[in-house]
Each structure stands twice: as structure tokens, then as C-alpha cells.
Amino acid sequence: MINPRTLAAFLHDLVAAALAWILAFLLRFNFDIPHEFAVSAVQSLCWVLPLFGVLFFAFGLYRGLWRFASLSDLQHLIAAIVTGALLTTTAVVFFELGPIPRSVLVLHPLMLALVMGGSRFVYRSWKEHRLYGPAKLRGQPVLVLGAGEAADSLLRELNRSGLWYAVALVDDNPSKIGRRLRGLPVFGPLSTVADVAEKYGVKHVVMALPAAKPSERRRAAEFAAAAGLTVMTMPSYDDLLAGRLSVSSIRRVELEDLLGREAVSLDDAGLHELLTGRVVLVSGAGGSIGSELCRQIAKFQPARLILLDSSEFALYRMDEELAQVFPALQRACWAGDVRDAERVAEILSVEQPAVIFHAAAYKHVPLMEHANAWQAVRTNALGTLTLARTAQQAGVDKFVLISTDKAVNPTNVMGASKRLAESFVEATQAGSGTRFVTVRFGNVLGSNGSVIPKFREQIARGGPVTVTHPDIVRYFMTIPEAAQLVLQAGWMGQGGEIFVLDMGSR
What CATH number does residue 236 fall under? Predict the structure, then answer.
């Protein structure tokens, strides 16, 4: 049974096709149609309307909703009309179906596209005004930082939400300042955000700068924060491309959004040489760093990716993700502990990896003191020694140990255990065919054991923020950035090196 709304839309389009056909004749003869052509115009509708009706359904014009008519719907509409015009012209030329002027064959599709497309546009505009128009506005006013495509998408979502409504935009681009986007004025530069906020009485800003450099986002956030405004941000540019923008995804700005360093530029050719077509093993594959390493490695199409972790759930979760994102990837999941020499030997004997990334470790500094100190040593140091020796015996080509800057003059058990692990790897390197490489880095935002959750909690309580020394400087990087740099160091290392990653500006 045909949906009543679909039937109504279909009848509307048939009427539009008929009216456009008659109007084309009227325009051709200046609204004074000779009798012969008037009869032909009416009689030809008997085959023109069925032809266009079939094409309207064939091109899927009624699968969408007029209320959400989009550019894709317009493309289908135009394709159906153009096809109908070509078939109509063919029928008239080859079958001589009545006296039909050639200008009618040109005018009809033009007017039909105008009527059908225009009616859909008018209907959508009416629905959006009725549902989301000024009378329906609720919530709080916001300023939008940025006036590009992302801002346009954001304004559309805000108007529909009823939770927020934009009053103006602020942008640095001189060509946009003074213009309007969706009826809203664009001010600038970003340094004027305080004045604009005061003018409109807003307390919140949303950064619509998903593709901007981190330094630009940080600069925009600093201007807004200096004005006492609450700063929020849109999803990432990848989310926007995937169509995952919604008002519910607008959130407070996090430290990850403001990390003041540009994206890492990797040597893809070198990494292909290291990873493509080779068997690669990642220990601690379910952890924050290990899981990101798996994602990055999978992009380089290894012959087989081996996941090793002591956590059953973490291993399962990572395997499910890889199966969904990289369905063609050959992989194997091994549940095991790097401290278990027999299990490690079994895995390396069966899988015969060419490259190992060793990310399995205890990383939480306070928890690894006192009662858990021996477990940190067993896992971080002795577990590394076990895996390194077994890798050497199995003929692994390259072994990359992921260490920490806390291994430099260690003042805690975690750092000391990692420094001991580095020493074991360095000792194993002597006279070995396996090339052992160590990579050190500092705080990784969002990783297990990171200090950031503690800082956030302390700030939310109003402080103080506890640091080990008043003059301490901490450096941060994101998980994807850390994983990319580990891969880069893994390719560059020739054996025996300790790479210290550039953590950027403070």
C-alpha cells in the first residue's frame, strides 16, 4: 500500500509536469496557441505524464522526505527530468507524435525543474520556520567562532535543537567580516570576541574550527576565556565528514583540543618498508597506547597483526574494532602475560613475528609504589627481559620498547622499573641479530595512568592542583601522535638507540 504522503507527492509532481507542459506551449505561442497545437498539447499529455511518472519512481524521488530535501534529492530530481526530456525528444523526433515545437521540448524540463525543485524548497523552508523559527527559540544565545562550512552546519543544527541559538559569528578572515551567514552577521577578528559577546549579552561560545591548526584553536579559546565566556567546541573534522554532527556532540573544550602542536608528518615510505607485508606483534594491544598502535599499523597492511594482552575484555574489544574497520586484515589474538616465558615462547614460535612493539606495562605511578612495587618490577622489567630474550631467540628483526621520560633519573618505582627494562634491552642487544630500539615520551593525554584525569578532578573541586614542584613543566601529546612517533622511531632505529620524542612547547 502506497503511503498517503508519497501518493500526494507523486500527484503533485504529475500536476507539475502537466502544468509545465501546457505552460511551455503557452510561452512558445505568446499565450495564443493555435488550435492544432492546442489539441496536440493536450493529447501528448497521455504519454508524457506516464513517462515522467515512471521516471519519478525509477529515480527514487519519493524515498526521502520533503522536509529534509537536500542537494542529493535535487540531483535525483534533475536526473529524472533530464532523462524524461531526452526520451520525450526521441519520441517526438522518431515517432512523429503530433506537432510539438522544439522549443517546447527545451522549455518543459526547465520549468518542470523549477516547479518541482521550488516547491520542495518552499515546503522545507516553511517547515523549518514553523518548527525552528524565532518563535520557537529556547535555551541560551551563543557566539560561533568561525564562519566556514563547519559553522554553516553548526547553525543549521542549533536552529533545530531549541537548546541553543546563535546570534552572531566571529572570524579572522577579512573577506568574511561584515558579511552574513544564514542571516547572522560575521564580526572579526577573533580578538574582538569580548566586545561582540558584550553587545549581544552572551556567555557561551562554540568553536566551529574543526579543521584549524591546534595553535589557532588555542588562540581562539584564549580570547574567549579572557572574556569570561564558557568555551565549547564541535566534533572533529572526521566526525563532520562522516555526518556525525549533532547538538548533543557539542562539548566543553578539552586539553586535547588545544594541544599546541601541528600534526606529525610520517615517513610513509619507510613505515611501509617496516610494516607492509610483515608479521607484526603488539604486546599490551588492549591498552591505550597498544590499541592505537594496532590501528596505525593496520593502515599499513601487515601480512598479519598479532595482539597480545593479559586482559581478555581489552583483547576482545580491540579485535572487534579491527574486524569492523579493517575487515581484510589478517590478525590473531593471544591472551597471555609477558612474564610467562613458556606462553611468550609459544606465541613467537607459532606466529614468527618480524617486528614487535612492546607496550605492555604498569604505568600508574602512585599505584606502583609500596605494595605493588614488586609487580611493577616483574611486569615492566622482567616481563620486558622475557619478551626481549625470546624475540632474540626467535629471530625477530626489530623490537621496539615503549618507555617513559620517568626512566631518566627515576624517583619512583614505575620509572625505575622502566629504566631497568631499558637496561635489559640494551644488554640483550649485544651480539644479537635483533635490533632493539627504545622510545621515551612523557604524558599522553587520555592514556591509562595519565595525570590529566587527576588534574581535571582537582580543578573541578576548585583546586589546588598538586604538582611535584612549583617550577615543574609538563609536556603532553595525544595518543595517536604518540603511536605515530613510536612507529617512526621503530623504522629509524638501527639497534641500541634510545629515542626521546620531542614533546613540543609547554
Answer: 3.40.50.720
pLDDT surpassing 50 at residue 240: no
Task: Name the band, by pLDDT with cuts 50, 70 and 90, for residue 488.
Answer: confident
The residue length of the chain stands at 506
- Contact assessment for residue 276 and residue 301, using Cβ atoms and an 8 Å cutoff: yes
Residue-number span of the structural domain to which 74 is assigned? 4-132
What percent of the chain lies above the pLDDT cut of 90? 28
The verdict on 282 and 208 lying in the same domain is no
Asked if 53 and 175 sit in the same domain, the reply is no
Query: What DSSP string describes 388-448?
Result: HHHHHHHT-SEEEEEEEGGGSS--SHHHHHHHHHHHHHHHHHTT-SSEEEEEEE-EEETST
User: Would you say residue 245 has pLDDT above 60?
Assistant: no
Classify residue 263: in a domain, yes or no.
no
Q: What is the mean pLDDT of residues 71-94?
A: 86
> Is position 406 annotated as part of the catalytic site?
yes
Place of cell 526530456: 85
Nearest-angstrom CA–CA distance, 15 and 9: 10
Q: Which helix (H) or strand (E) holds 231?
A: strand 230-233
Percent pLDDT > 70 in the chain is 79
Residue 83's contacts (CB-CB under 8 Å, 6 or more residues apart) are: 55, 59
Phi then psi for residue 447, to 5 deg, are: -80, 160
**390 located within any domain:** yes
Rounded Cα distance between 398 and 358, Å, is 11
Q: Are residues 337 and 356 in the same domain?
A: yes
Residue 227: pLDDT band (50, 70, 90) is confident
d(CA 495, CA 425): 10
Bridge-partner residues for 306, per DSSP?
281, 332
pLDDT at residue 453, as a whole number: 57
Looking at the whole model, is its pTM more than 0.85?
Answer: no
Q: Which residue has the cell 574497520?
A: 325
Among 136, 406, 418, 454, which one carries the catalytic annotation? Answer: 406
Domain boundary pick from 258, 285, 311:
258
Nearest to 59 by CA among 82, 84, 79, 87: 79
pLDDT 10s digits, 267-295: 678 888 889 999 999 999 998 889 989 99
- Where residue 250 falls (left for φ over 0; alpha for ψ -120 to 50; beta otherwise) is beta
Tally of structural domains, the chain: 3
For residue 7, the one-letter residue type is L
C-alpha span between 46 and 61 (Å, rounded):
22
The answer for residues whose C-beta is within 8 angstroms of residue 131's C-beta and 6 or more apart is 160
DSSP H/E element including 54: helix 35-58
CB 413 within 8 A of CB 434: no
Pairing verdict, β 251-252 and 230-233: antiparallel
Boundary of a domain, candidates 228, 258, 288: 258
- Say yes or no: 163 and 68 in one domain: no
